[in-house]
């Protein structure tokens, strides 16, 4: 487990004989899953799912599959026809996975993107576990309740959209969506309105933010370049949890800024583990424990 996936040679002709030979060797044939993206060599998903499988006693083989930028659907279908059971989907294919799915969960529909595929007979079930992974890490792992809180979501792209429904299900008092282009924040707010309930929704530019929030979530890509969204330090306070969806061995520029102004800080490694656990449960019907897996990955990240 954990290597790169290679399609079987002459898969259709040889499948029956190969399976028969394997059954004579072992009565347990691991189900095969992949993380599919481009690039994908850096993915920690094989290590995470190997730990989940060992913990739960599930027989799976989980590998990386790099699809051509113009060949996502073909790669998924070839993997499925070769006996694959499901896939995690990473950049840049989440929108294509949404289009490929024949069934969508409510959270995938709300997100407009898919990060998990399950092959169920003739159906391709699309789910989005990013948002519930984020919420699980904040509420359960960090111990910060979102109900009744003032939440600021930075960014209006796919990562932010995937977080909307799970955040609103926690019933924050307010959810402010801020973006460099306010019109995009307003578009996202419009999508969120049917799910808002009693949560007050607001759209803003980055520069207009001048008050402190209880929870600030950086869903922009700025941290990839060690940059910070252009927000005022006034958004941070001693009571603030600053959360960056990105993670690295050292704090991101966003988290360094937040810490300098008194905020508690958390990166997105826990979100990665929690969304993987939700995908694993969708596939296998059993929910793995995440605390030890997260602790092990954190130690490897810091030590590596």
Please describe what this structure looks like.
This protein has 304 residues and is of the alpha/beta class. It folds into two domains: 11-128, Leucine Dehydrogenase, chain A, domain 1 (Rossmann fold, 3-Layer(aba) Sandwich), CATH 3.40.50; 131-267, Rossmann fold. It contains eleven helices and twelve strands. The protein has helices at 11-25, 45-56, 72-81, 94-100, 106-111, 130-141, 158-168, 182-192, 253-260, 269-284, 291-303; strands at 31-37, 60-66, 86-89, 103-104, 116-120, 123-127, 150-154, 174-179, 200-205, 215-218, 241-244, 264-266. Strands 2-1-3-5-6-4 form a six-stranded mixed sheet, with helices on both faces. Strands 9-8-7-10-11-12 form a six-stranded parallel sheet, with helices on both faces. Helix 2 (45-56) crosses helix 10 (269-284). The two termini are 21 Å apart. The relative contact order is 0.12.
């Amino acid at each position: 487990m954990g290597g790169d996936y290679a399609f079987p040679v002459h898969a259709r002709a040889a499948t029956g004989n190969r399976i028969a030979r394997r059954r004579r060797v072992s009565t347990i044939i691991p189900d095969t899953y992949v993380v599919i993206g481009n690039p994908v060599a850096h993915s920690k998903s094989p290590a995470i799912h190997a730990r989940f499988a060992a913990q739960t006693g599930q027989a799976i083989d989980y590998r990386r599959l790099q699809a051509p930028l113009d060949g996502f659907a073909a790669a998924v279908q070839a993997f499925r026809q070769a006996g694959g059971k499901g896939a995690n989907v990473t950049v840049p294919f989440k929108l294509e996975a949404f289009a490929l799915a024949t069934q969508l969960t409510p959270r995938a529909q709300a997100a407009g993107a898919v990060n998990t595929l399950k092959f169920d007979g003739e159906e391709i079930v699309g789910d989005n576990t990013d948002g519930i992974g984020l919420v699980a890490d904040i509420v359960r792992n960090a111990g910060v309740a979102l109900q009744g809180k003032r939440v600021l979501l930075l960014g209006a792209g796919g990562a932010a959209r995937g977080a909307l429904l799970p955040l609103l299900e926690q019933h924050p008092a307010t959810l402010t969506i801020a973006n460099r282009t306010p019109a995009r924040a307003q578009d996202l707010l419009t999508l969120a309105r049917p799910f808002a309930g009693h949560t007050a929704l607001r759209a803003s530019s980055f520069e207009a933010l001048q008050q402190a929030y209880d929870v600030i979530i950086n869903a922009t890509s700025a941290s990839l370049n060690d940059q910070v969204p252009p927000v005022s330090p006034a958004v941070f306070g001693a009571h603030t949890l600053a959360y960056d969806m990105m993670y690295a061995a050292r704090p991101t520029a966003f988290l360094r800024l937040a810490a300098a102004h008194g905020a508690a800080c958390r990166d997105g490694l826990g979100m990665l583990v929690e969304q993987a656990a939700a995908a694993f449960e969708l596939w296998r019907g059993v929910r793995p424990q995440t605390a030890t897996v997260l602790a092990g990955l954190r130690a490897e990240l810091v030590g590596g």
